[in-house]
Amino acid sequence: MRHTLNLWRRQLGEVPGTVWQQTALQVLILADNGLTHLPPDIGRLRRLTTLDLGHNALTSVPDELGDLSGLSDFLYLHDNRLSRIPGTLGNLTRLRYLNIGENELAELPEALGSMTGLVELRAQHNRLAALPDSLGGLGGLRELWLRGNALTRVPPSVAALRELRHLDLRENLLSEVPPSLAGLPRLRQIDARGNRISRLPEWLLELPALEKLDLRWNAVDPSLPLVRELERRGCVVLA
After folding, report:
1. Which residue of 58, 173, 192, 213 is most buried, as measured by CB atoms within 10 A?
2. Beta-carbon neighbour count of residue 117 at 10 Å?
3. Can you give the pTM of this predicted structure?
4. Are 132 and 110 in contact (CB under 8 A)?
5. What pLDDT is attached to residue 1?
6. CB atoms within 10 A of CB 40
7. Exposed, middle or buried, 86 (CB in 10 Å: 0-12/13-18/19+)?
8. How distant, in Å, are the alpha carbons of 33, 77, 88, 115, 234 from that of 53?
9. What is the DSSP string of 191-231?
């Protein structure tokens, strides 16, 4: 049985010091407590596999978060007030799920690409105008959620995400379907709603697994021959 401490919605304001002494903990839930500060003591809990810090008021998290080498399941940092995440998170090479959405992040560290265990990355509703080139290092990534940022492009290294199935680019500033997606063998769904796309590339016909292409609230003509051909091949196109 896993050692779990669930302090969800306890109106703590501050984490009791006794928590950091429980070094056998594997699951720690501190969500929705009005936390504004997380001490370096968090780094003591090296057996944690899941850490939930979502729905708080954190403006930063300590570098010692990267000492949690046992994190292999989930790390929730969403719905805080983070303007940066430490590069030490790149040490979390076993982590499978990271949610840093609903923050104030203007950039992500290059070290993100070292988190090679990631299967799902959520960075929705931030202030990202660009993504690190190291993103292509996440070779096992299956889902990437980037809705509600200020992206005008995605890096060429995304072409290395050979396991990617779902890509959410909704509500960004893209003027084209990112060329780096061409040839991704397992990509099933592209959500590009609410961008500035007016033309579609022919290489979309070469994506072997594409099942759904959502282009609503762009300037794409739904009567284009390419759209009809995609639908003939079984891909649902919404435009």
Report:
1. 192
2. 17
3. 0.97
4. yes
5. 63
6. 12
7. middle
8. 9, 5, 17, 19, 41
9. E-TTS------GGGGG-TT--EEE-TTS---TT-HHHHHHH
Q: Cα 170 from chain centroid?
A: 13
According to DSSP, the residues that pair with 76 across neighbouring strands are 52, 99
How far apart (Å, rounded) are the C-alpha atoms in residues 170 and 190? 9
Burial of 232 (0-12, 13-18, 19+ CB in 10 A): exposed
Alpha helices in the chain (DSSP H): 225-232
Length of the chain: 239
Angle at 122 between CA 118 and CA 127, to 5 degrees: 130
Name which of 99, 150, 93 is nearest 120 in CA terms: 99
Cα–Cα distance measured from residue 27 to residue 125, given in angstroms and rounded to the nearest whole number:
26
Both structure tokens of 60: 């930063």
Structure-token pair, residue 94? 């076993």
Based on C-alpha coordinates, what's the Rg of the chain?
20
State both tokens at 116. Answer: 């090679």
pLDDT along the chain (239 residues), means of 10: 91 96 97 98 98 98 97 98 98 98 98 98 98 98 98 98 98 98 98 97 98 98 96 97
For 198, other C-beta atoms within 10 Å of its C-beta total 11
